[in-house]
């Protein structure tokens, strides 16, 4: 069994003061990798007695030489070590004069004579970017991808007279992701972990603990450097093989094909999911079917019917373009620079001069790469430009797309002016002048970053409950729209930037989204008011205000999602490390109700997105979609990548059912009624056993004891019922009031109700707005009729207000007995249902309060802290309020027991609803 550095890592400390054994080293190699290995070894206390690297190229020293010369380390720049296979004596003598005990070759492209390899006391070690004996020879990373290996890695081995055949000192490996490239593999794993491994390997040698494991010939392979002439892609094969060939040659030497009779090199390949965008056909030599130039790039089809997306194309003259622009005619017109932009251009020219030190002067026609720049110079250019222009979004590939100074400046200025947007978001707004402002409302489905009509073309009316008038027509999504939205979300998760994004960057986007919601809070609150009937002041503070708080809270969680290490039972002498990772689920579906349209969206989607998932969200069936669609618009402005958020207004029976059945949806979060929740749970189980969280119905008890603060009990008791006109999932569905204070409590409640102003929810002085929609108002009126028929006493209300719209009087029932319909069923409206209980009968009232299949929330009012704590322990509900009510917070978990569902919104618990736990056990 091969040893790795991790097998011995626990045997010694990594702190420099512990290392007693140090070596005199010769570093032989080049590149930034070599520089980092050199610097790290010196930090660990090893003495570098000589650096042997390549001569300056175009007047520029290799990074390894630059670092060594700065430290005063002897540097030797030999163009070659051998001539006609024989060592050059003066070169060998110069090497031997430094007296190295070990040769370290972190990245070496030269052939080193064996009398140099074997000269030091400890010989020579070499870094190789493959899991030897696989892919011996050059271009090992490329061949890892070309062959479609599922694992990549590197080896530190002892040099011998073969080609990468020496004994192995240590190896490490990583998984190859579906759309990894040479660059991503190198940057993510081979570069950072390789540097650490070289340092560890040297210390193992210094401590006399370095293994020499002979390489097996089983599975051994050798592939040489791939030449451009051999890099033509065979398009008559499955899509994955095409993808592997292209990404394995990216960027050098570049896979190519013939289009229109000329050689075109293909860069930036990724596998496409189910959603293949429409495009303009393009004949390509050897392809099983024509490709398609789409807004996302060039689509190539494999013989298996699957597809590959190519992002960039490079022509024989060296010009590179986005593949999506293949059919674009003519050149884009150059922009004329203003005075400030000319100053920026002068500063950028100085950056070019600093990098291209071998060029006498940087002219408009100076080509960055033809002037000797390499890939690390691209990184330097991008980073230095960002320092000068902090707000610019500049990527490495932008340099490859604009290689001359003039083109680079033109590209930069367009970015600074905001003219580089991939595609302008087109919105067919519905506008209304209301609440002393003009609100602009999207009204179409939002799929893959675009607003578009439903596939069927169907629409429905969304109605203002204040007067029954139609606000606008809204697209009515179909099953086909669901499938397209899920495909877009899956593509965004599998291949888009969201899943690959640094969690902290993901958090920054969510913070930006919260900022935009705050900038538009008056508009959002106004839309919420006219669409749902919420009183404007409440909509501003709670519906919108808490939504903003929720996104900010979960944005802060993005870079704090952590696993844990776990001690497990070990059979000595084996040692094990077990740790867990929290990973996103994938595509999540979210179905929300109509009582808090934006807030329910925020409660679920903020946690979902913070965890790294993508989502398809269905607003409440045909009643309150408008703030969700406005939210979609703001998400684009915030920079959320396309496909991450999709919004589908439509029916639960069609859209919701398809989401619960869809095989590519991995989680469904639902807030709504218990019967629908049961149906959703069943569909989710039968389809693909997707994860489910349900926040369902409630009949929340509120117990008011005679030792309460009466003023507070009246005020909060009314709020527990009438908050948001009773359309509140945690509303107190039944109040139990101790007999000796019952009549006073009822009298004072009625007195306060008479003071409430019922009317236009946009009026700042209004206390009570309209019910959400007419069908709900009718249901509430019927609910009150049943209560009267069963013998409960209607003390106040129970009627529709005589004015346009769907207004209902705040209602109070007393003498409610336990068997009655209104004692057992939720009204979801402004109906206070009151029962009295005997003085001092704590056990009896607890039994009655818990005699329900629901368990969402509950409350107790008493000055006796012992009684309060006892009752809170006995109440069977997910939330217990003591001497308050409706006090929810973004950091506190929210969810119910029994038939009120399971799973949590808000707080860290909600985040866990959108993550899966992976356990990893390593034996070392």
Automatic annotation (TrEMBL):
Record-listed (6R)-10-formyltetrahydrofolate binding positions: 110-112, 164
Cross-referenced Gene3D superfamilies: ACP-like (1.10.1200.10), Aldehyde Dehydrogenase, Chain A, domain 1 (3.40.605.10), Aldehyde Dehydrogenase, Chain A, domain 2 (3.40.309.10), Formyl transferase, C-terminal domain (3.10.25.10), Formyl transferase, N-terminal domain (3.40.50.170)
Reaction(s) the record says it catalyses: (6R)-10-formyltetrahydrofolate + NADP(+) + H2O = (6S)-5,6,7,8-tetrahydrofolate + CO2 + NADPH + H(+)
Domain Carrier: 339-416
GO cellular component, one term: cytoplasm
Binding site for NADP(+): 592-594, 618-621, 652-657, 672-673, 779, 826-828
Residues annotated as catalytic: 128, 695, 729
UniProt cross-references to PANTHER family, sorted A to Z: ALDEHYDE DEHYDROGENASE-RELATED (PTHR11699)
Entry's family note: Belongs to the aldehyde dehydrogenase family.
Name the UniProt record assigns to this protein: 10-formyltetrahydrofolate dehydrogenase
Lineage: Eukaryota, Metazoa, Chordata, Craniata, Vertebrata
